[in-house]
Amino acid sequence: MKRKLLDTSKCAVIFLFALFLSLGKSNDAIAQTNAQISISGKIKDSQNNPIPGASITVKGTTRIVASDGNGNFKITAQNGESLVITFVGYETQTILIGNQTQFNIILAEDKGKSLNDVVVIGYGTQKRSDVTGSVVSVPKARLSQLPVTNVLQSIEGAVAGVNITTTSSVPGKEPSALIRGQNSITASAGPYVVVDGVPLTKTGGSLNDINPNDIASVEVLKDASATAIYGTNGSNGVILITTKRGTSGKPVIRYGGYYGIENLTNILEPRTGAEYVQKYADYMKQTGQTQTKPVPNNGELAAYNAGTTTDWVAEATQTGKIQDHNVSISGGSPDVKYFISGDYLDQKGVVKGYQFKRLGLRSNLDVNVTSFLTVGTSLFLASNNYDGGRANLLLATAMSPYGKEYNANGTYAIYPMDPEQLYVNPLLGLTTTQISRTTNINGNGYAEIKFPGVLTGLKYRLNAGYTYFPKREGSYTGRLANDMLGTARSFNASTNSYTIENILTYAKDIKKHHFDITALYSAQERKYNETTAGATGFINDELGLDNIGAGATQTSASYRDRYGLNSQMARVFYAYDSRYLLTLTARRDGSSVFGSSTTKYGVFPSAAIGWNIINENFMKNVSFINNLKLRLSYGKTGNEAVSVYRTITTESSSRSPFNGISTIGVIAANLGNTSLQWETTKTANIGLDFGLFNNRISGSIEAYQNKTSGLLLSRSLPIITGYVNVLENIGKTSNKGLELTLNTQNIKGEGFRWETSVVFAANKNKIVDLYGDGKSDLGNRWFIGSPIGVVYDYQMTGVWQTGEDVSKQDPTAKPGSLKFADLNGDGKITADDRTILGQTAPKWTGGITNTFHYKNFNLSVFIQTAQGMTKNNPDLTYGDETGRRNTPAEIGYWTPENQSQTRPALSYNNTLGYGYASDASYTRIKDVTLSYVFAQNLLDKLHLGGLTVYASGRNLHTFTNWIGWDPENNYSTRGSGDWTNNYPLTKTFVVGLNVSLR
């Protein structure tokens, strides 16, 4: 027995020793197998030209590099792994790593790749070759290479038919967007915005809440076939935004940041001291008055005698500064993917007191719970801060250069031109307390079920979104700002909204037949409430906004409303052999804004067909054509065009004295119309997509026509009814246009490439009918047969000169008066001589982007233009106000000596209210960006995944005949509009970098 135990022990020892040796050998083998080897090579096309920027990835890992300007790359890999080489427009190539460490890789052009790109459409995605509607993807370079605060600034001028207008450069102010012109006269014309499948529009938020660095793609839906799926919300076009999601692999940390300065693009300089004195002298002479002092006011004499002047525009402005810092981390496993980002933006405006700060956080998560269930979230928080008292640029242009800026004690002089009290110090706003803040707390989630077996292809998706949008405003104006009683105001509002969408999709291929069916049931609700509190009569300015109850006179108000929308939708897409395409869509919307005397529901159908001509047999031998597709669509969309509660009759409260007692009563406010219905737009679209010469030339051309009926307009009522007007479905408009997009690869050299992108859009709308009687509405400047927005005024032909006979045309005119055309020939200038001078919307817009690549350098130059619009020029309507204000030196005035034919005399009183209609066309160097991508061999030494540095300039120069701050700017005159938006266009210069860690 003992011998057997001993033998067993020996065998065990020998076995363990052998196992140890084998493990050692295995470890050696594993070490040899896992040894990292250096792989290098060059990426070329079929013509032996290098391909810079190609992606080289070690399959199944996060190791990725890009080829340099000469197509060279270097990466580490293991024996047995594979390299995956990809580049846009070329077929993907996979190479197995063996003993070879040097590769010369030729990528074959993929002529159909761009057609197989997936684009986001309403409630899903689709291959580009299958798209039958007008869907345009914003170029990725516009989204990733421009330092902008709002994504609309990236789209500006880059998409045909999308007109982005920056009427004011106030920090944090969102540009306005118009897709394919204006269909409605009074309703909102802005597009519907959807972020990650959940609406942003109608939730209280705006695109200012979306960090541009988080955006992966932007699609614009333009025709009825593309937009009808959103029903009433799609009547003005749709912008779909998809944010970045996580990918499988090790975490990737990215940082992007830039810093820059801002200045006014053009300064409308006021007159200098000497010019101001001369203007006053000329004014006194032209009005026949005796001049007793060199300046209008005694308060100006001290500075005049001392020879000191103040540049008020310089005092009210400064060099603006802008900085942005964005950090993101993304990664995950095949079953759990995440993307987390944080962003901080800080912008100090060029006009003192203006600023904008945004703090944004985002978390996107996708989880494959099982093989058939996927859930995910898209959460973000955006905190916007617009605080700050503001300088008044309008008043800064009016101040006398001899005005007194400060009192002896260092405070601002309230009346710089004492005793003149028409103008106060433009810097008084800086002494006020101003609070303006918003927060967007947005939580979206989804769950998607994929059915197996015989139901393969069937998916159910639940989208749910909730938004909480609180807003706070507050102000206090005290003694230092010329309010001797002190005035405080506090405003708080909140918007709560939710969206629930049930989406059922089914995709099936049967031989050459492809079916894709989508069905939807959704519900949206928004609740809004606000409260306002105010007070005047504070004993001092110490507490101000922090103790409104200390005011002697108290005011308060509150308001709330609710909006709801229920929808059902069905869409069927059919394709035969990737040649013949058909899309049918119908959506039914029910809106709470409509009245009880009619249905609250509207049905919006559309149909579209597509023909992939390139896939026909007769095109196989036509080698120079790579893509040719014809698209036709027709459909109907609706526009609510009315706010909540406008269909019901309401009263408002009014406080009046009665028997010596303040009594609250009610007065008529809104006369409801319970029969109101949708504005309806019928749209026809034809488009041709093309690609030529191996897609060296590609693009599309489209034409469309919209006819809108049932416009919601206010019909005037006899005042005896107690109401001024009532809303009715009356009126018709027509809107048509032509769009062209052209992309060319001009040079494809070994070390140099040059690409060009051109967009062009022409649009023409007109009023077909208003009130059913064929008559125009002169009061609102709405004319049948003319565009919706026009300038209707007198036709200026010059200035009356000394010795000219005015009796036969304008008997009341004097030398220096404006000369107008007597269009009706009655020998006098009356209101009947007014005519349409032009339209306020551009007749056509365009943009051209030239991109140059030389080795690791990239240069992009974008030029934008808008032509054919006319605007009244507020910069020319500066009333001299009886010689009491300064005026811009550039504008000038008539004298008997200069005999100006464009400007009137200082004594001229604009009794006709002429608006100085001017051509507002312009061409602008919108942005120029120079970037450098560091070579991968250097990045390897720095242990970085990527590094790009860049310098960018925006709004560098404007070519225009406009006289004033800027033709795009909406500038308010004194006594009208909101002076806080008198903030002209700014030019920006920034430097920045994008870096990724690995």
UniProtKB/TrEMBL annotation:
Keywords: Cell outer membrane, Membrane, Signal, Transmembrane, Transmembrane beta strand, Transport. GO terms for cellular component: cell outer membrane. Pfam families: CarbopepD_reg_2, Plug. Belongs to the TonB-dependent receptor family. It is found in: Cell outer membrane. It comes from Pedobacter soli. This is TonB-linked outer membrane protein, SusC/RagA family. InterPro entries: Beta-barrel_TonB_sf (IPR036942), CarboxyPept-like_regulatory (IPR008969), Plug_dom (IPR012910), Plug_dom_sf (IPR037066), TonB-dep_OMP_SusC/RagA (IPR023996), TonB-dep_OMP_SusC/RagA_CS (IPR023997), TonB-dep_rcpt-like (IPR039426). It comes from the Bacteria. One of its GO terms (biological process) is siderophore transmembrane transport. One of its GO terms (molecular function) is siderophore uptake transmembrane transporter activity. It is a multi-pass membrane protein. Residues 1-31 form the signal peptide. Residues 128-238 form the TonB-dependent receptor plug domain.
